[in-house]
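User: Can you predict the 3D structure for this chain?
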Amino acid sequence: MAKLQSFFSALLFFLLPVMVQAQTLGSPDKLKVLLYKTPADSSRVKLLLELCSYYLARPEDFKPDLDSALYYSQQAMALSEALNDEKWIEESSWMIGYCHFKRREVVQGREAFMQVLQKYRDNGDKASEGKALMTMAYHMFWSNSTYDEIISYFEQARALFGQVGDTIQATDALRKIAEIHKLQGKLDESEEEALEAIGQYKAIGFRNLHYTYNLLAEISTIKGNLNNALYYGLEMIQSMEETCDSIAAHTFYYRLAMIYRELGQTEKSVEFFKKSYSRRVGENYAVACAIAKGLLKLGRSQEAMSFVQNILTTEPPVKIYDKSLLAYALGDCYYAFQQYDQAERSYLEMVEQESLLKYQNSYTSIVNFIMGQFYVKTHHYKKAEPYLKKALFSPKGTSTIHQLEETNLLLFKVDSAAGNYLSAIRHMQQFKILHDSIFNETKSRQIEELQIQYETKNKERDIKLLQNTGSLQESRLRQANLVKNLTFCGGVLLLIILGLVYNRFRLKQRSSRQLELQQIEINQTNNTLQALLDDKERLLREIHHRVKNNLQIVMSLLNSQSVFLDNDTALAAIRDSQHRIQSISLIHQKLYQSKDIALIDMPTYIRELTDYLQDSFDTGKTIRLDLQIESVKLDVTHAVPVGLILNEAISNTIKYAFPNKKAGAVAISMCHTDDNHCTLKVADNGIGLPLDFDVDQCNSLGMSLMKGLSKQLQGNFELTNEKGLTVTVTFENQRVVKSDFLTDGVPWTA
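Assistant: Here is the predicted structure, written as structure tokens:
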């Protein structure tokens, strides 16, 4: 969202006057009619640029619109050059550069801006050069790949403004550098630069501090320093009201509302969200979503649902980001009404729309968190895990500490449900660290504030004592009576304290009994959870058993079908399908027969698969299979593709590598490397592939399967045609078990 706001500010900086006039004139058709009626002079250039700005301002980055914008800007440049009008040449260059940046064509955009920059440099006009650098940095597409370059432009502009004594512009450049550092996740550096900018603005009497306070409030919110965030947010609103600069009031009210929401003050947050909603016309979907969420938290579910549905009816969203936001709000409403199926559909729509965005930011992290949170609340822990992990490992600076804290707590629940207790403990520890860090920071700040108040009161007391030295003697005369009264009161207080101590002792005894009862309940809950885990394991074994039986039925059906076929090609296709099904069936058989229902022991599996293939092709002693398999264990998602690749490689070798029943050998190996990768290799000493064979042009089913399955493993597929054919697949596996090779006989060599 911050990135979008930055681009919006840049767009207003340069295009607002032109866009306003374009909108005043109406549709592009009217502009085109005026264009053809206008003579080829500066007025025509102006209309061309207005048409360009119209297409640039269209919703989303629609390629035909961007193409039209670039076309009209280039036409404006051609006409400006023909007129030899320096002013419009410069304006056209800016617009061409911005069009290229919008199209993500950084090199071409930079070249267009540099043409104007070079003119200023040649003329020694440092002020104009600084403004040009600022404009180029504003308009460039902001992403991880361009941040450092953009920072360099702002730094150059800052230096130039410093040389010409323009302190305001120099400080503006510093503030923009702080914004980019915030986007890069360099929060401490960004905060220092923003505070330095505040100091420089105040030193020159510049009063529009609300934009910088907004940045500081956002940084503090991300860091979890909510006291600081609230202070900066209130300063931001005060600065805006004092300067009467309310053009971005909706943004500032939205920021303060977000801070109140983080502080748990829902009523206040809804109040300021509504202020933000009322101050901006159009594209209020982010604020609407926040209002709905606040109403739901206050228990006003029907009001929230009516609010969201009214927006969908009266102001249906057009942009991808807005569609995702409305789906998010609708999902929250359905969940509040316990309509979980509709809620899930809305949340999945939210995820789908967000995936269409061309960049990822803090909203991406929020989407993954919301999706994971929903699945945890509805006890679909397996579905929740990938979303929560994406949210947890999102780029630094895109998630607040509170969100990271909650994400770790949800992952603790997911891992606990899956029986991954070590991982669950790690997430709970991380949750406690984040929770305690927020609590300690808040508590420390509160203590500091109390200390300041205490020291202030002490100073005031000392001054008062100095002023009242004359009344000291009178005070001492009253002291005797005071001592008597205090002695009596002390006795009464002593009795009260003794009564409180006794009451505390009784409360402690009662608490001890309650803790014992709670421990008994915890033990009972643990026993229940263990029973549930055992039932889950039995259910998984039964599932694998049934899958294996169903695959065997499919093989039997294929075998029955082959009886009625007299076409050799069809029979071969059925036999190949039976072999592939058998390779998968073996995996499920191993899963329900082994103690570990999550991992496949590859040496045993590969030995049985090769025995099956030798029996199926009836190779006898003609073709010898040598196995060199390390004790590698794979989960189902890795084992199935590996089994199918082995089936294809061995089958092709037996069928084609040794024509005319020629004797030969096939070496099958599987080993691990030090970087958690596995290498599967099937090598034969047969005739190999023809010299003109092109793997990329081969469209056979077997070769396509091996390449496609290697891609599914995110691995590397390679064919080596030397002294026979060698098929090599390398892929990542985090569960490699180091051990010696398990071999059949002497290692084979070509």
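Residues 601-743 form a domain with the Heat Shock Protein 90 fold (CATH 3.30.565.10). The first helix runs from residue 2 to 25.
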